[in-house]
Design a protein that fits this description.
heterodimer; A: about 350 residues; alpha+beta; BirA Bifunctional Protein, domain 2; 2 domains; 7-stranded mixed beta sheet; two-stranded antiparallel sheet; about 45% helix; B: about 850 residues; Phenylalanyl-tRNA Synthetase, Chain B, domain 1; OB fold (Dihydrolipoamide Acetyltransferase, E2P); Phenylalanyl-tRNA Synthetase, Chain B, domain 3; 6-stranded mixed beta sheet; 41 strands; about 25% helix; elongated
Chain lengths: ~350, ~850
């Protein structure tokens, strides 16, 4: 049957046109000719109506195949030409960025916004600086020693289950990790202070941490914490409770108070969770606080003697307290953010609210 | 852990509002995560007999049922079909309020009036069963008309869901919770004899064990590895009839969250829930050689655990310190039957054919159980308890408890073999230490006397005896073995302080705001970082937070070749690398907004980027194993943004920081992130430190601080950032290494001392040069600055011209130079001289021609 030859010839003809196209404009024009309404292939399609059903089915199938082939050829050529044109354009557009004329700076139409987490971190830092704390930082990649060992969490310690850890393929297995909390910065500070005579220490340590949690409304695998450490003479649990209370009212407002209840952290003894008055109901009891009037914010306690031992601080001369809590969680509470994942979506409408 | 209040009351007379008890538990650090009232709402439910069942016309799912609960026939409509005439069922009559507050009312279905409801186990909150209604035929004491609660022996109860901290194995049982609670409330605490539980009923209440044959004649135990298993005890019970546990026991287990299985397994679970000691019953007749051998697993040894999984043992694990030591319990012929402290095996499981039970109650080394359980990914109720540390001295009480329970539930002919096999090695003993009240008070900020401290500790079972009458006299303290969390002196003093504080009440402890003479402050770098972010915001950019986990193609696109810093256990397999650049994340953020028709954005991020160090990895103790740097990256994707936007941003930053001198170098592949930029629209940023006293321009030390320009259009296209015409958008890019940029030694700032401002008029000179395209305008500017000397106040490029009068391959650069002297008005001659030397310098240095 001669139809078969006709279709192959149609495709070959189209191919020669397509390959001859040299610009996006030519591609546009050529597309109309080889696959548009007046193209031979469209006409062949229209002619199907006059055939008997069997023949129509067979020929229709092959025409469809031919059309697909042609369209693929066009797309491929279009990509090639775009690439060539871009390359030509770039080559011609080589510019010297030092030819900058200062007067040409155009004022931006609107001011940008700091991320809510940054704003929260800055605000927390400012409160603590006002209370006499310095601000310290540390690395996000840590060794087992800084993240666990020196914090009185030896290998296989059951408490390791409290932190789902991302380990790195660096060094021996499970020796290097993404810090699961900001507490290793405490160890850096104390080791440094012992070597360089830097005691006493009054510092807060904000930063990014990592835990192997599947993201949900309350958890992100990457999150921010702020940690506090005071090592000085005569520091007691009363100082810890007082510091937490002063911070709470300073940051959340005069109606918001704090309370401590016993808890367990390997690096503090005695240890406590600290809760603050529910910011939604102001202590009346609501769904957010499970009718308790309190919301758990973080952990704290007196620095465990085993930690002091690990860094070589004399526990007869120095005592200390430490505390830590989530920066993102503070933001979530204060701004009533239902789903934490809003913080990492980077939707400009969300970011511009703050 | 689910803790029924009724069970707690076996240990101390707890009364009062459950909510108050829950709050007290919270305050003891035994955090109550939920309080559930059970068995309530059953008061009106009665046992009824089914007298008649008929179909309803036009309904195939419901039937008309006539029941009798002692007050004559009651007609109800019921959708279940698992019962027949003569069955005993639970009827909730009209007016009854079921658990959860559901009130039964008279209802009409398909024209038939229903005067009540036949209930399923789930509707009564007695079980999860909702397949059909509850049938009571087999329940002893279920008679027509009697209250369901009476028939089932159910009393309303409260179950506390208590979260026990990892360091308190002693509190991970009913008795332990009761001990803490009683201590706080000042109530007497005692572990009752099983016989005293006669009120709970059962087939053999108050039953006492009939002594059987001496144990060594029926079973043997040998411990080959006392390091992993320092204490192993065995008891044997014969004549056991395996059956269901009595309802009271099954109900306690159910309330506590465990499924009843049979009387033997249930007794073991009951003891674990009550006293915290896991025990394991073996079918003695299924143990080859009628005995056990406890040994270390050989490398690669296989054992099939109760869950039917074959497990390979004794392979070193990935974690630090796991050398692959697993404790195996084997039969007397050495075939493994259980993994010690973790899980039993199928071969010696208790079933209905069992008549002789060997009960294991042992102490396994916590760390070893933790490693085995972690490596095999096999966490059980037993392993979780052993790895936290069970009480080696509590073993006998627990095993005896098991025997007492099974004596009551295990059939009339049960005998307990005489004697106990007890193989004791090196188990932890009681910690004894001296505790200084002064130390306790120094930690807590309190003023407790020695006597006051002793009073707070004694109810917890911690013996504390003041050495004298003095308020400050040292206390002799003995810590029971069920408190492995309390360490010896000196660290133990902190542990004792916590116990004192817990019993006393954290809320009652004093508070004070500490004061110290050192001021609080931010470091220079922290202040500068805030300034940088502020500048970016001022430029219209909004701060983003993108993920640190990226794919290999992200890394390649960002211009980094493998290998990369790799996460061993990523959340998403494809995203297993730590980003070497923030470019992919930021481009994705732009795309996210573009897809929501808000793609006109400028975004920046300050964060850490990661790269592998060159050369071999450093020892873990020796310092960081990867290179990290803190960077500021910005994408400028407003309509009309391009490389020039990035240049403007950089100049604003340099101005804000007050950089002494910096330069933009024509694009060179220095350092990081070069490939995201197109070669023709990019530049590296360097800080220039001119050596003091040296010849200007002669000894220049450039420090690389970052790059800027326009993102590679192919890359932009790959990330889907396209204009409506399908071509890639133009996106400006700025990437700064903050660690370098903000380091004032490497990137100097303008000197702190002020420069006087001249009162004399200044003079401007405009100079236009024809310069080849290959010479950056910045280089010409720098030459002018140097040759202008001290009298030069400013140099500014004000016009760039390309056209026929300049010729191919070059352009005209027009600069305005402003000269000024502090002490005089410059003369025309002086200006002329400066002009000539500037022209000469540029012509010589850059083959330029004055126009």
């Amino acid at each position: 049957m001669s139809d078969a030859l006709d279709i192959d010839a149609l495709v070959d003809e189209a191919r020669s046109y397509i390959e001859a196209a040299q610009s996006t404009e030519e591609i546009r024009q050529m597309t109309a000719n080889v696959s548009g309404k007046k193209s031979p292939i469209a006409e062949a399609h229209r002619a199907l109506g006059g055939l008997d059903p069997e023949e129509r089915k067979e020929l229709g199938r092959r025409l469809h195949g031919a059309r697909t082939t042609i369209e693929e050829l066009i797309e491929r050529r279009r990509a090639e030409i775009t690439f060539e044109e871009l390359t030509r354009e770039m080559a011609g557009a080589r510019i010297d960025l030092t030819e900058f004329i200062p007067g040409a700076i155009v004022a931006p139409p609107a001011r940008g916004h700091l991320h809510l987490v940054s704003q929260t971190r800055d605000a927390l830092e400012d409160v603590f600086v006002g209370m006499g704390f310095e601000v310290a930082e540390g690395p996000e990649i840590e060794t087992d020693w800084f993240n666990f060992g020196a914090l009185n969490i030896p290998p296989a310690h059951p408490a390791r289950g409290m932190w789902d850890t991302f380990y790195l393929n660096l060094g021996s297995p499970e020796s290097t990790l993404l810090r699961t909390h900001t507490s290793p910065v405490q160890i850096h500070l104390m080791e440094d202070a012992v070597v360089n005579g830097g005691l006493p220490i009054h510092a807060v340590m904000p930063g990014r941490c990592y835990r192997r949690d599947t993201p949900d409304a309350r958890h992100l695998p990457v999150f921010h914490q702020i940690e506090g450490l005071v090592v000085d003479r005569g520091i007691t649990f009363a100082d810890l409770a007082g510091t937490i209370e002063v911070f709470t009212t300073a940051y959340f407002g005069p109606d918001i108070h704090s309370r401590l209840r016993p808890a367990y952290f390997p690096f503090t003894e005695p240890s406590a969770e600290f809760e603050v008055t529910c910011t939604i109901c102001h202590g009346e009891g609501c769904r957010t606080c499970s009718m308790t009037g309190w919301i758990e914010l973080g952990g704290c306690g007196m620095v465990d003697p085993a930690v002091f031992d690990a860094v070589g601080i004399d526990t007869d001369e120095w005592t200390g307290f430490a505390f830590g809590f989530g920066i993102d969680r503070c933001a979530q509470m204060r701004h009533q953010i239902a789903d934490m994942r809003a913080l990492i979506e980077n939707d400009i409408r969300f970011l511009r609210q703050f | 852990m689910r803790v029924p209040l009724s069970w707690l009351r076996d240990f101390a007379p707890f009364e009062g509002d459950p909510a108050v008890l829950a709050a007290t538990l919270d305050d003891l650090g035994l955090v109550v995560e939920g309080v559930e009232a059970v068995g309530e709402g059953l008061a009106d439910v009665v046992v009824a007999r089914v007298d008649k069942v008929t179909g309803i016309e036009g309904a195939d799912r419901i039937r008309r049922v006539v029941v009798d609960s002692g007050n004559g026939p009651v007609e109800v409509v019921c959708g279940a079909s698992n019962f027949d005439v003569g069955d005993l069922v639970a009827l909730a009559p009209v007016g009854a309020v079921l658990p959860g507050g559901f009130e039964i009312s008279r209802r009409k279905m398909k024209g038939v009036v229903s005067n009540g409801m036949l209930c399923s186990g789930r509707e009564l909150r007695l079980s999860d069963d909702h397949e059909g209604i509850l049938r009571l035929n087999d329940v002893e004491g279920a008679g027509v008309g009697c209250a369901l609660t009476t028939a089932l022996g159910i009393e309303p109860d409260v179950v506390f869901d208590v979260a026990v901290e990892a360091n308190r194995p002693d509190a991970w049982c009913i008795a332990g919770v009761a001990r803490d609670l009683a201590a706080r409330l000042g109530l007497p605490f005692a572990i009752p004899e099983t016989a005293a539980l006669g009120h709970l009923g059962g087939p053999n209440p108050g039953g006492t064990a009939v002594p059987g044959a001496p144990i060594e004649t029926v079973a043997s135990v040998r411990v080959d590895d006392p390091e992993l298993c320092p204490r192993f005890t065995a008891r044997v019970l014969t004549g056991v009839v395996v059956s269901d546990s009595p309802p009271w026991l099954a109900r306690r287990l159910t309330l506590a969250g465990m499924r009843p299985i049979n009387n033997v397994v249930d007794a073991s679970n009951y003891v674990m829930l009550e006293l915290g000691q896991p025990t394991h019953p073996y079918d003695l007749d299924r143990l080859a050689g009628h005995g056990l051998v406890i040994r270390r697993a050989g490398p690669g040894e296989l054992v099939t655990t109760l869950d039917g999984v074959a497990r390979t043992l004794a392979r070193p694990g990935p974690g630090l310190g796991d050398t692959g030591q697993d404790c195996l319990i084997c039969d007397a012929e050495g075939e493994p039957v259980a993994i010690g402290g973790v899980m039993g095996g199928t071969s010696s499981e208790i079933d209905t054919s069992t008549s002789r039970v060997l009960l294991e109650a042992a102490y396994f080394v916590p760390m070893a159980v933790a490693r085995t359980s972690k490596r095999l990914n096999l966490r059980t109720e037993a392993s979780a308890r052993f790895e936290r540390g069970c009480d080696p001295a509590g073993i006998d009480r627990s095993a005896e408890r098991f025997c007492q329970l099974l004596t009551r539930t295990g059939g009339a002919s049960l005998q307990v073999a005489t004697g106990v096999i007890d193989i004791v090695g090196d188990v932890p003993g009681a910690v004894e230490m001296n505790v200084r009240p002064s130390r306790i008070n120094a930690l807590l900020g309190t003023e407790f006397t020695a006597g006051g401290i002793a009073e707070l500790l004694t109810p917890l079972g911690i013996e504390a005896t003041p050495s004298s009458e003095d308020a400050d006299s040292t206390l002799r303290v003995t810590v029971p073995t069920y408190r492995p969390d309390i360490r010896p002196f000196p660290m133990g003093e902190a542990d004792i302080a916590e116990e004192v504080a817990r019993t006393y009440g954290f809320a009652r402890l004093p508070r004070r705001m500490p004061a110290w003479p050192q001021p609080g402050r931010l470091t220079d770098r922290q202040r500068d970082r805030r300034l940088l972010k502020d500048v970016l915001c001022g430029l219209g950019a909004t701060e983003a937070w993108t993920t640190a986990f990226v794919s290999e193609s992200d890394q390649v696109d960002a211009g980094f070749d493998p290998p990369y810093v790799e996460v061993a256990n990523p959340l998403v397999e494809a995203e297993r690398f730590l980003r070497s650049s923030m470019a992919p994340g930021l481009m994705r953020a732009v795309l996210y907004n573009t897809e929501r028709r808000q793609g006109d954005v400028r975004l920046f991020e300050v964060g850490t980027v990661f790269q592998l160090p060159e050369g071999p990895a450093v020892d873990p103790e020796g310092g960081p194993l990867a290179n990290t740097s803190e960077c500021l990256s910005a994408v400028f994707a407003w309509d009309g943004d391009d490389a020039w936007t990035a240049v403007a941003a950089w100049r604003t930053i340099a101005e804000a920081l007050g950089l002494a001198e910096w330069a933009m170098w024509d694009h060179t592949r220095v350092g990081r992130t070069s490939r995201v930029l197109h070669d023709y629209r990019s530049a590296s940023l360097v800080s220039i430190v001119t050596e003091p006293g040296g010849d200007a321009g002669a000894s220049v030390h450039p420090t690389f601080v970052g790059v800027l320009g326009e993102l590679d259009p192919y890359l932009v296209g790959r990330f889907g950032l396209l204009n409506p015409d399908g071509r890639p958008r133009r996106v400006g890019w700025l990437d700064l290494d903050i660690g370098v940029l903000l380091d004032r030694r490497r990137v100097p700032r303008r000197p702190e001392e002020s420069r006087p401002i001249s009162r004399f008029p200044s003079s401007d000179i405009d100079l236009a040069f024809s310069v080849k395209d290959s010479i950056p305008a910045g280089a010409v500017e720098r030459t002018l600055r140097t040759s202008g000397g001290d009298l030069l106040e400013s140099v500014e490029l004000f016009d760039v011209y390309r056209g026929p009068s300049v010729g191919e391959g070059g352009r005209s650069l027009a600069f305005r130079l402003r000269f000024c002297a502090l002490d005089r008005t410059l003369t025309d001659d002086e200006i002329g001289g400066l002009r000539s030397s500037c022209i000469r310098a540029v012509e010589q240095a850059h083959q330029a021609v004055l126009r």
